[in-house]
Amino acid sequence: MDHFDYVDGVLHAEDVPLPAIAAQVGTPVYVYSRATLTRHARVFRDALSILPSVRIAFAVKSNPNLAVLKVLAAEGYGADVVSGGELERALAAGMDPDGVVFSGVGKTAAELERALLAGIGQFNLESEEEGLELAEIAVRLGKTARCALRVNPDVDAGTHGKISTGKAENKFGVPFDRAGAIYARLAQTPGLSMRALALHIGSQLSRLEPLEAAFTKVGGLMRDIRAAGHAVTHMDLGGGVGVPYKAGDVFPQPDEYAAMVQRVTRDWDVTLMFEPGRVITGNTGVLVTEVVRVKEGVGSPWVVVDAAMNDLARPALYDAWHDFAAVAPRGPRMTANIVGPICESSDTFAMARDIDAVERGDLAVFRTAGAYGATMANTYNSRPLVPEVMVDGAKWAVVADRIDPATILAAERVPEWLA
Ligand SMILES: *Cc1c(COP(=O)(O)O)cnc(C)c1O
After folding, report:
1. Where along this sequence does the record place binding of pyridoxal 5'-phosphate (predicted)?
2. In 3D, which of 125, 280, 257 has the Cα closest to residue 198?
């Protein structure tokens, strides 16, 4: 459910017609609906309220925009961060450091120190080596780092290979059969307070079974660790719940997910932690684009739009589907290939797709672009960095400026010996 609907034949974000935004900000532009964001945050949180003790840390990487983080902070969300940059964003948005979880296999010494000084709630350690390095820093600073050990449960998430993270061959977490021994060693290391196991098996999961299998497996490990005399007071179940990108796709609903978690964790006696990203932000955004021209093709015509793989990378990276719709459809349909202007064949959003018939100058949207959209944007082909807008009822504001190629060029230098 979202708040992008047609009113008198024109697509609106809440009460704002998208052409009004395009006229002032230009295209391409991401448009987020605050009402949709709030709704998704509440639906997920309310679904989990059947569980006894819950902390939710929004996966910042899915949409790190400051205004988005502000909205989620107000809904009581913490943050799952994977870099020093994301940590600074979460703090800048006013998120309580205690609700911040730091994940990732490559946290540097400087990042670990900064996060310790900021007083974050939990470090999700991805190796014994990382734990020992963090312990040294904590002892030097006179701090104690609250930690989870991320375990690789060796479960196939059944999603795209590039967003699978829970198979033994993936780089994430420690091997399942070594986790007990590593936890025990780290639990005895000064500077660390081991309190949890963590897992995250992948993103855009369409079924609950792999999650259930992974949770069950890690629950068994938790019992073994407790039996060996170590405390486990928290369990971090990660993110990964998928969203429908295509009309007709059926995905697990938050209440089904919560019921499954309740069933598996009934006797765990822990605070459960969650790291949702896509399921919160996916539906909250569209990417508005303008048709540059329609070019004749061998099979279908090419609809060349002014958005490209640098603005929305998911189709090029993961063969992902985004619904495409005209902002003011005239009625007829066409079969077309939708592509951007970048000089790569991977700059393709859709092939032989049945779409609203469009012409040069028409506005259109790629839907469900609120997660892993603007956050992955870059300036390839010396294109601008795409701007972002947030709508709230009849109000709207630019929440990230377009960064022009001239600004980027100004940061480059020609060395004297080339001049
Ligand atoms: C990416 C990521 C998430 C969020 O994944 P979604 O599929 O967006 O819910 C959660 N936890 C970790 C550790 C991640 O890397």
Report:
1. 240, 275-278, 372
2. 125
Q: What are the pocket residues of ligand 1 if the criterion is a CB atom closer than 6 Å to any ligand atom?
A: 59, 61-62, 80, 82, 103, 200, 203, 238-241, 275-279
Q: What is the pTM of this model?
A: 0.97
Mutate to test the pocket of ligand 1, among 236, 275, 278 (most ligand atoms within 8 A of CB): 275
Name the active-site residue from 1, 247, 343, 394.
Answer: 343
Residue with CA nearest ligand 1 atom 8: 277
User: What is the CATH number assigned to the segment(s) 4-32+282-410?
Assistant: 2.40.37.10
Which amino acid is residue 158, in one-letter code?
G
pLDDT band at 183 (very low <50, low <70, confident <90, very high): very high
Q: Is the pLDDT of residue 1 over 90?
A: no
Domain ranges of the chain: 4-32+282-410, 34-278
Mean pLDDT of the chain: 97
Q: What per-residue confidence (pLDDT) applies to 287?
A: 99
Place of tokens 């708040």: 3
Query: Ligand 1 centroid to 44 CA: how many Å?
Result: 15
> Residues with Cβ < 8 Å from 215, sequence gap 6 or more?
199, 237, 261, 264, 265
Let me know if 343 is a catalytic residue: yes
Are the beta carbons of 123 and 112 closer than 8 angstroms?
yes
Report how far ligand 1's centroid is from the alpha carbon of 164 (Å).
Answer: 10
* Nearest CA owner, ligand 1 atom 10: 239
Beta bridge partners of 194: 147
The phi, psi pair for 6, rounded to 5°, reads: -80, 130
pLDDT for 90 beyond 90: yes
Position 248 pLDDT exceeds 90: no
State the CATH class of domain 34-278.
Answer: alpha beta
In percent, the amount of the chain with pLDDT more than 70 equals 100
